[in-house]
């Protein structure tokens, strides 16, 4: 069921404390942790604690929770001091877009120049 933890989900296991992660921020609704394969000096994943397979499903079911993810990504950017130079928030939705963990999550990237278009 959407919103419920999934036994086979890596990010649900991180939320539950079953898999270690370098957590940089946590609230009642989100967990933010460093990516294990960073693509920038700041590369933090911001995830809702509730399980939704992608950001579109999350936004349709719980728009306030989707807003929490975005707000907390901004807070992490401020804490990591990348907010002044600029940063990027990316949601990969579907395997064709590069999503490999099917639990909605934002990639916060900063600390270096970010070219456009990405990819």
From TrEMBL:
<dbReference type="InterPro" id="IPR036265">
    <property type="entry name" value="HIT-like_sf"/>
</dbReference>
<dbReference type="InterPro" id="IPR001310">
    <property type="entry name" value="Histidine_triad_HIT"/>
</dbReference>
<feature type="active site" description="Tele-AMP-histidine intermediate">
    <location>
        <position position="105"/>
    </location>
</feature>
<dbReference type="GO" id="GO:0003824">
    <property type="term" value="F:catalytic activity"/>
</dbReference>
<dbReference type="Pfam" id="PF01230">
    <property type="entry name" value="HIT"/>
</dbReference>
<feature type="domain" description="HIT">
    <location>
        <begin position="10"/>
        <end position="119"/>
    </location>
</feature>
<dbReference type="InterPro" id="IPR011146">
    <property type="entry name" value="HIT-like"/>
</dbReference>
<protein>
    <submittedName>
        <fullName>Histidine triad nucleotide-binding protein</fullName>
    </submittedName>
</protein>
<feature type="short sequence motif" description="Histidine triad motif">
    <location>
        <begin position="103"/>
        <end position="107"/>
    </location>
</feature>
């Amino acid at each position: 069921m959407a919103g419920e933890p999934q036994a086979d989900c890596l990010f649900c296991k991180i939320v539950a404390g079953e898999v270690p992660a370098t957590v940089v921020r946590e609230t009642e609704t989100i967990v933010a942790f460093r990516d294990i394969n960073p693509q920038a000096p700041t590369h933090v994943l911001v995830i809702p604690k509730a399980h939704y397979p992608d950001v579109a499903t999350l936004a349709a079911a719980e728009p306030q929770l989707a807003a929490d993810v975005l707000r907390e990504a901004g807070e992490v950017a401020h804490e990591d001091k990348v907010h002044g130079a600029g940063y990027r928030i990316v949601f990969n939705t579907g395997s064709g877009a590069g999503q490999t963990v099917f639990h909605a999550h934002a990639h916060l990237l900063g600390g270096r120049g970010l070219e456009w278009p990405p990819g």
